[in-house]
Amino acid sequence: MAPEVASPTVEARSGARIALEMIGVQQQIDRLQLHFSRLAAEFAATEYWDDEGSVSAIDWIRFNCHMTSNAAADRVAVGKRVDDLSRSIRAVYDGEIGFAHLAVMARTANAVGARFDESHLVEIARAQSPGKFHFTCLHYRHAADPQGYAQEQAQQVENRRLSLSTWEDGSVLVNGVLDPVGGATVRTALEPLARRCGEHDHREREQRLADALVELAGGGEQPAHLQVTSSVETLLGLAGAPAAEVEFSLPVSSRTVERLACDSAITRVLLDQDSVVIDVGRAKRVVSGPARRALHARDRHCTWPGCDRPASWSAAHHVVHWTHGGTTDLDNLVLLCHRHHWMVHEGGWQLVRADDDSILTIPPTTKFGSMLSDTA
């Protein structure tokens, strides 16, 4: 007796139907994109876009057809290469590859010129996703024209840019472009630091990358040196004290100064009430030498529960800050990474050392409005 075969559930049948419909719709979109590309190439050969005041045909298409510049450029590139991509175009109509494959094919043809072998590449495209095919075509381009490929990479390096601009509130806007190797170098340094760490790490990825960039600049064996100008009253956090000043930044709060003064490599300039310089400290860590080595040996990494940032990327935090009479003795020090050090000073968290020497974290106190006033 043959075993019974369970019939597909309603959900499975529905999912299969939706999947087939999605594939069919995307194939129609790919064919329409191909038709659009032919029109885009014909349009680029006219002067209409110039008469309209656009800087290029791609710019006109971008604005009037509501597309990105890269998408518009892909359509023009494909349209100009339709006579050289007959096999690929047939594969698009047959649903074997997508328009994204075709865009990669057209750019590869533009790059290698007479060395372009469509029959070889279209077989590869049938078996690969568009992203993987793009990766393969880069290898193909290098094999076909290594000198041209190297020149493109050299041009990418020449196009590198980094701008830093300050907003009215003191926030710094970072904008830039790096060549592939330079970008990979930066990402290799940032990615390990941008992982979630410890309890209560609810940061978005962009926030973790931003923190990683700051940590990269301020941590390690050679942290960035900051110059902080502060009054004694500000350093002590007294009421009515002015904010402190940091080079390349707008004035910062006393809590930020306290964190920086905790262990950062800073040059401090202390002023009295009449703004007279009374002390200029050297740019060195507050905790150094044997004390730092002992702290590293004891804690080994950031002591925040669940955080494993290494000691070399952590600051020596004073449980009782030295401006309030705390000592630099080992019993008054714990290692904290950049993020958790910020949480303790500016974020309002508290650290408590338990009897077993473990570290307990206490979140900021939340104040709720009086319910009586709402119901009165």
- Count of strand segments: 10
- How much helix, percentage-wise, in residues? 40-55%
- Summarize model confidence as the mean pLDDT: 84
Uncertain ranges: 370-376
Radius of gyration from the alpha-carbon trace, in angstroms: 30 Å
Strand content: 5-15%
* SSE string, helices as H and strands as E: HHHHHHHHHEEHHEHEHEEHEEHEEH
Supply the number of helical segments.
16
Secondary structure category: alpha+beta
- Major sheet characteristics: 4 strands, mixed
- Read across the widest sheet, the strand sequence of neighbours is 4-3-5-6
Shape: elongated
- What is the distance, rounded to the nearest whole angstrom, between the alpha carbons of the first and last residues? 78 Å
Molecular structure report:
There is one protein chain. The chain is of the alpha+beta class and 376 residues long. Among the domains are: 13-156, no CATH class; 161-216, no CATH class; 224-283, no CATH class. Helices cover 49% and strands 13% of the residues. It contains 16 helices and ten strands. It has helices at 10-44, 48-51, 57-64, 69-80, 86-93, 99-112, 118-127, 130-144, 146-158, 180-190, 205-218, 232-236, 254-263, 289-299, 338-345, 371-375, and strands at 161-166, 172-177, 226-231, 245-246, 266-271, 277-280, 314-318, 333-337, 350-353, 359-362. The strands form four sheets. Strands 4-3-5-6 form a four-stranded mixed sheet. Strands 1-2 form a two-stranded antiparallel ribbon. Strands 7-8 form a two-stranded antiparallel ribbon. Strand 5 (266-271) and strand 6 (277-280) form a beta hairpin. Helix 1 crosses helix 4 (69-80) and helix 8 (130-144) packs across helix 9 (146-158). The longest helix has 35 residues, at 10-44. The termini are far apart. The model is unreliable at 370-376 (pLDDT under 50).
